[in-house]
Structure formats: structure tokens, C-alpha cells
Amino acid sequence: MREYDLFIDGTHVPASRSYTSITRDPLTDAAVSEVARASDRDARRAVEAARRAADDSGWSDVPLTERGARLRGVVDLLFERQAEIADLDVAEAGVPIRMSLELAGGALASARDEIDLATTDYVRQDDPAPLARPYGVAAIAPAYDAPFARAVAAIVPALLAGYTVVV
Questions:
Q1: pLDDT at 125
Q2: What is the C-alpha separation between 103 and 46, in angstroms, rounded?
Q3: Are 2 and 29 in the same domain?
């Protein structure tokens, strides 16, 4: 069984109250993973860490083309692990494997397209509205029915825009 802690401020940490949840395969009811359950205190710590990262890292000041290149590298790595990601979606969300592979692959292909579009000279030069400066932390809560695909669809544009993200 896989075990997952919270990832806050660059470190894997247990939930402050040591609460966990067991995820189960909806088909067999077998335990798939034990996941740390964040409390309000943990959520505040995560948002504070993301805020510090936004202020200290200069991520929003990194040129859009460089942010895009870095995100493209992450998306490419996720493509390499697409089968593993799909297997986890199958086990935890009960999504059929064929659909899970299509959802994961589609989300990653869309992320690549979004990055490519946002970082083209055509878009950056001809956009009449200047890019807004990010001013906070984006909070993402992916839906249960396709958690990976929905997370990618929310996280990539937020990071591309220069936000830090708490999921």
C-alpha cells in the first residue's frame, strides 16, 4: 500500500493531527493508499509556504517563455509516467483503464498545447491586454472523477501565469 504525507514548503510532512484516510479500490474495496489528511492548520501552513515561495523565488518574475520551458519539462516527465498515473486513477477513482489513459494523456497534451500557445511570440506580441501580475496563491481542489486530469488542467495555467499553487 502506498503512503503519502503532505508536501509543504518543499518537505514531506505528516498531517499535524496525524489524521489519515485510506483510499480504496471501488471495484475490490482493497486498500490502495494511506493519505495524510490536512487540517485547517496544515492548509494555513501550505498557503503560507506558497506565499513565501511566491515572494522569495521570483517565480512570477521569471519570463513567460522560461516558465513555459520549465513547465514543459515537467509535463514531459509526467508523459513518461502516464501509465503509472493511469493505474493509480483506476485504483483510486474506479476509472476504466482505457478512459484513464485517455484522460491523463489528453490532459498532458492539452497542457503542452497551452504552454506552447502562451509562449509563442505571436500571442505575446499581439495580445492587447498586458499580462496581469499574479498577487496570491492559487488553491486547487481537483474533482474525484478524474483527479489527475482535472489537477493538470488547473495547475498548469496557474503556474504558467506565475502563481504558486496549493492542491
A1: 53
A2: 28
A3: yes
